[in-house]
Every structure is written in structure tokens, then in C-alpha cells.
Amino acid sequence: MRIADMNWMQVEDRIQEDDRCVLPIGSVEQHAYISLATDMILAEKVAVDAAEPLGIPVFPVVPYGLASSFADFPGTLSLTLSTYIGVMRDLLDSLHRSGFRRILIVNGHGGNTPVTALVSEWLNDHPHTSVKFHDWWRAPLTMGKVLEIDEAASHASWMENFPWTRVADQRQPADRKPKVDFAALARVGAARKRELLGDGNYHGLYQRPDADMQAIWEVAVAETRALLEGEWN
């Protein structure tokens, strides 16, 4: 259930019965030939698909995250770490003030992981609240399914190329990109990263059959839903 389809009175009534909610977080950054909004699209969709049968409210995705590594790719937007942590703290405070005590953060971008340190700190001041942080794409069952299909899978490769992250661009290569030098990427700034990455795909094919992507999506949705239904204490 999307918060966008509810008013405040319905939220208040819902909280009296069930204090769970979902906050998706993503990023707007280069993803080679697929959408710049891939991380936010996937985080929000997996959250909505997982929560819908349970009637759990899903807030609009936080679109911008920590994407400084891709700052030299046009269209990439990045927040500073201090700004981002401040935004996330304010959002958690607002959710708590509304009455939510079980919060699932569905993350779609690896760069956003500093939020886990914030959550740990924030929970010390909110002892009767539980927060789960879920990197949906690299959760055990989901990543297991990805690797079962094709082990050459990484950022901006086929594993993020779903029907809902594609754009109208016919230039997408049909070959398999060699793996980039991850150690070299880690020690240089954004300009040099762009030179090393080329189109932005880290390695692997650019697209696989839709049947493969649907199989991954079904696992991802089920794994995310299990977190909502499982233990919170």
C-alpha cells in the first residue's frame, strides 16, 4: 500500500492495528545504458510488491543518495555524507513521531550503507522501535538466484536490466564486458573512475532474457516480504 494512496487519518487508523512501514531508499546515478533512476525504481518497486498483500504502508522512495564515485557522469546527483545522514535521521524521527515502531528500510544502492551506522545510533535513543536495513539485490536468496543464472553480474550489468529500468536507447552492446579493476577504482577520484569504467558497466552482459529477470524478481519480492512478516525483536 503506497502512502501516496492514503490520507493522514487512514495512516493513523492503520497504526492502531499495525505499526509496520517501509521506507525505500535509492540513488540517481549512471547505470550505463539503463535508467539513471535504476536504484530508486527497483528499491521502491520491490518494497511495494512485497508489502502490498500485507497492507503495509510504503513511503515514496528517497531518490538521492551517496553517489560521489559517479559524479563525473552527467545526470548523477549525490548528497554529501553529512547531508544524507541528516536527512535520514529526520525521516526516522518523523516515522517514529507518526507512531511507526517497526520500520523496514529497503535499500537499492550500495553507497547508502553508512545509514546502518546511523540506524544503530538512532535505536539507542528509541528503545521500543525496531529497524531492519535490507539491501534487496544482495540479500542471500536474491543474490543466490542471480549467481545461479550468471556469475558475471555487477553494477549496471544485466542484473539491473529489468523491463522497468530500460530506456529508449538502441546502443546497448550485445557482448560481455570484462571485469573492471576494482582495486584501481577504489583509489581514484570520480574523473579517473569514469575513464576506467567507460560506459559504466562493471562487468558481464548488458541484458538477459526477461524470464531470467522475472525469476530473480520473484525471489527478491518473497525475500523482502519475509522480513516484514518475520521477527522484529
Description:
With about 230 residues, the chain is mostly helical. The protein has a single domain (about 5-230), classed as 3-Layer(aba) Sandwich (Rossmann fold). The protein has 8 helices and 3 strands, in the order H-E-H-H-E-H-E-H-H-H-H. It has helices spanning about 10-15, 40-50, 80-100, 115-125, 140-150, 180-185, 190-195, 210-230, and strands spanning about 20-25, 100-105, 130-135. A 3-stranded parallel beta sheet has the order 1-2-3, sandwiched between helices. Helix 4 links the parallel strand 2 and strand 3 (about 130-135). It is globular and about 55 Å long.
**N-to-C order of helices and strands:** HEHHEHEHHHH
CATH architecture assignment = 3-Layer(aba) Sandwich
Largest pleated sheet: 3 strands, parallel
Q: How helical, in percent, are the residues?
A: 40-55%
- Shape verdict: globular
Average per-residue pLDDT, rounded, comes to 97
Strand arrangement in the largest pleated sheet: 1-2-3
